[in-house]
Amino acid sequence: MDFAQATLTLLVLYMAVTIYIVYRGARQTKNIQDFAVGKGFSPTLVGLSLAASITSAATFIINPGFVAFFGWSAFLTMSIVLPIGLFISLIVLSKSFRKFGTSVKALTLAQWMGTRYQSKAMSYFMAFVSLLLITFIVLICVGLTKVIASSLQADETLVLVSIVVFVFGYTLFGGANSMVYTNTIQAILMIIVAIILIGSGSSHFEQGLTGFWDKINAIDPQMSKSFNPTSPLFRDFFEVVICNFIVGIAIVCQPHIITRSLMLKSDEDVNKYLTVAIVVETLFFAVLFAGFYARLMFPDLTVDGQAIKMDGILSTYVVKKFSIGVGILVVLGLISAGLSTLEGIVQSLSTTISNDIIAPLAGWKEDVVKVKTTNRLVIVVLAVVAILMSRYQLLYPNLSVGILAQNGVYAYFSAAFVPVLFGIFYKNTPVQAAMGAAITAFVVHFSVYYGSLTPYTTGQVKNPAVASALAIVSALTVGTLLYHLYKKKPVTQN
Question: Range of 287's domain?
Answer without folding.
Answer: 3-396
